[in-house]
Amino acid sequence: MYPLCFRFPAFSIAYLCVVTRQTRSLLSVFEEDSGMLTNYTNQLLQALQRVFGAQSEMGLATEQLSQQLLEYEKKNFALGKGDEEVISTLQNFAKSVGELNSLHSELATQMADSMVFPLIQFREKDLTEVSTLKEIFGIATDEHEAAMVKYSRLPKKKENEKLKSDMMKEVAYTRRKLHQASLQYYCALNALQYRKRIAMLEPMLGYTLAQIGFFKKGIELVSKKMDSFLNSVSNMTQNIQAQLDVEAEAMRVTHKELLSGDDTVYMPDRDTEPVNRTLIQKAGYLNIRNKTGLVTTAWDRLFFFTQGGNLMCQPRGAVAGGMVLDLDNSSVMAIDCEDRRYCFQITSPSGKTCAHISTQVGSRLRWICTVNNISRQIYLTDNPEAVAIRLNQTAIEAVTPITTKPGEDLIAPGTPIQFDIMLPASEFQDQNRAGGRRTNPFGETDDECSAETDDSLLQQVFAVRFLGSMAVRCGKNQEVIYEAMRQVLAARAIHNIFRTTESHLMVTSSNLRLIDPQTQVTRLGFQLGEVCQFAAHQENTRLMGFVVEDRDWSDGGEEGEPTFSAFVFESNTEGEKICYTISLAKDITEAKKDPEALAQLMKNMPLTNDGKFLLLDTETGNHSNGEGNEDLESEA
């Protein structure tokens, strides 16, 4: 395109004042081109600014990525097997990404200086200058047109020389002003045709040079520092993938084998695995009974596990578990619930209880065995598994009688064991009619009255659970009690008999009586003279037993053959206290034969206000109303 200019032989004022049609047409072309250039420049600047913004965001993103890679080490994942190599590799990557971040930041700075800034400068300087000169040219044109209109209206008849002179000066002034504005405007339009070429090329030149510099520095960084590192990372990922493939194949085979089984394995009551009685750890879902109101309860299904000597519970959604019960020296029992099956109850020494439901009878037995083992504090030994196995083996071997002395059998092989005390219905009715006292069918009441008088010297009640009784061969050796304990406990464990019934053992100065807490009916009764041996277990302090002598009149002899029976109990208190009370009762019985000896005994022992021997507080206060006489389970 030809440059916009005035082409005439001489500067004639009259010619300058006339803008030809050709000039006007050419000027409109230049102005249209300038407007299009302005719009395109704005669009191009937006595209360049978007590239610059993306590059700046790339720098910020790589910086955040570098920081995030370093955060992996601080997470302390619970399943962190093999994370050491991953942590070190991510740290190296974070360092490399940090170096790349510096290159991205430098590239963004170069784009701002050599790509965006030149185009902004072109728009603000050149295009704004043309727009301003166009406005000035338009104002000068309007002023010139107005001056010419005034000049053309001068009257011909009455010429006013002064008015005419003023109008001519005004026309000359506006022409000169229009001439100067047009020259500046046309020159700016002509220069814009050259400046726009530079403005279009300079940003792209700066962009390309900045990218080339970035790539060169990036290649140097990768080739010199990262070749060996990237090769090691690639090998490590390939090894991990190989391990994953092997594990996935093993899981696929296992998955197939598990799904190929019979659908009966999903039945809740199916349990074909033998019960391991040596467990010292157990975990699984149980239902625990919680109070929802004054008299209402609800069963909540939660995850329970044993840790150390504690029973722990982890509710759904909880991060860790909390302690429910201390299992040291606790007792566990299978109980009957009206609305649930497979229930068992754990009781701590402090009296705190919690009832649970298992999914099947085998699972309940495993929990009971585990709690029993933990209550003995086996987990505190150096090798708890071996101790649990030894104790279980000892219990199994105890079914076969052993001898403490050569040639002396304490218990005959195959001797039956009675695990419960069955009270005949007739005797139960007789005792109810007698107010809880056994009546003598022969009407001999003098001894009974005397016994009641003697009982006033000592009456001590203990809460006990009857474990079993069996016939023994001798009554003068405490070893026979220990052997009976072993065989009773072993038989209960072998035959899965954990249920016991709580009773009150009353020790008086004349007899021993086992009383039902609910009905106050005497289940068993022995005169102190019939009790020939009594002892507490040497390890499990809650176990105690005694041997009772009786007579067998079946052979027709006058005196009858002596027979012996051992009775084994589990108490809420130490067995030694019960044995001490029985010993004291025997001492009182012997002292009653000599008034002076009885007086001396009463002088040496503390007495209550009513003249009874002061020993221990009663242990049956919580059961005095007959409460709690549920079927319990022995911790032994």
What does this structure look like?
The chain has 636 residues and is of the alpha+beta class. It folds into three domains: 10-245, Arfaptin homology (AH) domain/BAR domain (Substrate Binding Domain Of Dnak, Chain:A, Domain 2, Up-down Bundle); 282-398, PH-domain like (Roll); 417-421 and 455-552 and 561-604, PH-domain like, CATH 2.30.29.30. 50% of the residues lie in helices and 18% in strands. The chain has helices spanning 13-16, 21-71, 83-152, 161-259, 361-375, 384-397, 425-433, 446-455, 479-494, 575-591, 595-604; strands spanning 283-291, 297-307, 310-314, 322-326, 331-335, 343-347, 353-357, 417-418, 459-472, 499-508, 511-515, 522-527, 531-536, 543-552, 561-571, 631-633.
Q: Into how many domains do the coordinates divide?
A: 3
- Summed over residues and divided by their number, the pLDDT gives a mean of 77
CATH domain topology of the largest domain: Substrate Binding Domain Of Dnak, Chain:A, Domain 2
Which quaternary structure do these chains form? Answer: single chain
Point out poorly predicted stretches: 6-18, 395-407, 424-454, 621-630
The CATH architecture of the largest domain can be given as Up-down Bundle
Helical proportion, percent range: 40-55%
CA radius of gyration? 55 Å
Helix tally equals 11
Domain PID: 462-520
Main location: membrane
Membrane topology: Peripheral membrane protein
Pfam families: BAR_3, PID
